[in-house]
Specification:
The chain has 305 residues and is α/β, with parallel strands linked by helices. It has 12 helices and 12 strands. The two termini are 29 Å apart.
């Protein structure tokens, strides 16, 4: 039994005629007859009876007809779905992201992406960089936004550098000058963000390089909570600029430049498995990232998954 036989069967049943079925299928009448005979042999039953008024279904043929129509409809639905994926009218995008990027950067990117491709379903999983990296390696996400990594199984396309800034409350004495000396960092109570975060290691490394022994006032497990503690004057903090842009713009926090100290930066990349066929949704997302950050993307393999 093959698809051609089923198509011929349904068309003959619809038209009650072998000749009209042949016309609709752009075949000769003998070809349609041969297909029906082959189907009858496969099923071991006669499907049609001929009389002076044309062709009519046998009882067995009438019983088989709804299932044959269902097969053709399912196939057409599959073709429509495939075309929808090709045209990005449907499909799914599975993203991974470090928490900071997922909270402060990704929403703006996804707003543009979902506006372009409203039919796509997007899911996002966030976590520390190491965890997100493992999501990529395990194919749990199609691609991720995370710190740049070097691994033989991973491609990393640098997008931007996330700068760390020193912030205080507006009423803090350092805010009046918007500048501080390196020694000030050792005297002021420092509010730190989670020791498990990549930013903690980045900040601690920068302080050690500057010869500063920080006076830790408290440790928070939330970037938002860290900012709130600074806002109410409980200490100063070194935070990713992207996490504090809103508060800096509104005057809720003040950026402090440190004389003689270069603030650390962390490169953020689009990360995905090397030698993997990326879905069209993933390729479209990468294309948007390339436009947004004006970076050249490598030649990518396309495919539907």
């Amino acid at each position: 039994m093959d698809l051609g036989q089923i198509e011929a069967f349904v068309q003959v049943a619809n038209h009650h005629s072998f000749s009209k079925a042949a016309e609709s299928l752009y075949l000769t009448q003998p070809s349609v007859s041969a297909r029906i005979q082959g189907l009858e042999r496969d099923l071991g039953e006669q499907l049609f009876e001929r009389d002076g008024r044309g062709v009519r279904l046998t009882e067995v043929g009438a019983s088989f007809l709804p299932y044959a129509r269902r097969v053709l409809k399912t196939l057409q639905d599959g073709r429509d779905a495939l075309e929808g994926v090709r045209s990005l009218e449907m499909g799914a995008l599975r993203l991974g992201s470090v928490v900071t990027v997922g909270t402060y950067v990704l929403p703006g990117i996804l707003k543009d992406f979902c506006s372009r491709y409203p039919g796509l379903e997007v899911s996002v999983r966030t976590g520390p960089s190491d965890q997100v990296f493992q999501m990529v390696l395990a194919d749990e996400v199609q691609l991720a936004l995370a710190r740049t990594v070097a691994h033989p199984d991973v491609e990393a396309v640098p997008l931007y550098e996330d700068e760390v800034v020193l912030v205080t409350a507006p009423q803090h004495p350092l805010a009046a000058m918007s500048r501080a000396e390196i020694e000030d960092l050792g005297r002021e109570p420092l509010i730190i963000f989670s020791r498990g975060s990549g930013y903690y290691a980045l900040v601690q490394g920068a302080l050690r390089e500057a010869g500063v022994v920080p006076r830790t006032a408290m440790e928070m497990d939330s970037m938002e909570a860290t900012k709130k503690m600074v806002e109410v004057g409980l200490g100063i903090a070194m935070l990713p600029r992207v996490s504090a842009e809103r508060e800096l713009e509104l005057g809720m926090l003040v950026e402090i430049k440190v004389n003689g100290m270069t603030m650390p930066r962390r490169a953020i990349s689009a990360v995905y498995r090397r030698n993997r066929r990326l879905s069209r949704a993933a390729l479209a997302f990468l294309e948007l990232l390339g436009e947004r950050y004006e970076v050249n993307l490598p030649t990518l393999t396309t495919g539907v998954r």
